[in-house]
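Researcher: Structure prediction, please.
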Amino acid sequence: MQQGSNRAWMRGVSALALAIALAGCAAHGDQQATKTRPPVMTSETLKDMSADQAIQLLKEGNARFVAGTPTPHDYRQQVKTTGSTGQYPFASIVSCIDSRSAPSVIFDLGIGDIFSTRVAGNVINEDILGSLEYGSKVVGTKLIVVLGHTSCGAVKGACDNVEMGNLSGLLAKIRPAVDATPNVNNADRSSHNYPFVDAVAENNVRLMVKSMYDQSPVLKEMSAKGQIKIVGAMLDVKTGKVKFL
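Model: Predicted structure follows.
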């Protein structure tokens, strides 16, 4: 075999191996996004991605996390690539500071995949809204996710009307969800009623999504034009599984 033909053959084998590896990342459903996605997000990949494909990437990543079959990420290479070519995250995720709810871990993501904002109770304020507007309008992320979780300590504090320094103001942002949640399991509306706490946490996610539309004309307009989607999700800390609302 001639040297030129040999090089061409080797390139073909390498391309096939990459295609197989990428195809293996897709667990089920609409797999087109993961089959064609490069190891690091690029401007071209982000431009061609839809919000629904972004959601599918997160669902597939969480399925791998729950199954214990995560992608073997080459973080050093991802650092090198994103450091030289820039970052092009496909989603922005607002999550709690809870140690069990790290978005990059539970969605099996690599460096450069998402913008991650973390605050107790996954609450929204003007600084977070500004960050999300930057991610969507300037960088071009296609999806915003408010990620709550079960057994949330901040939600428990809001249920119990805890007051402590600056935490009081944060918990006040969760109180509307407490007030809007009907009795669950029994009449106990404290942190001792775990089903009630989880129901409040889910309502809190829904209210935070609504607050984005109410408080950010930029995000509201982009959503109305179909440029982005804003969704809520809940993580079960006992299983690691994420449910999109």
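Model: Confidence is low (pLDDT under 50) at residues 1-36.
Researcher: Thanks, that helps.
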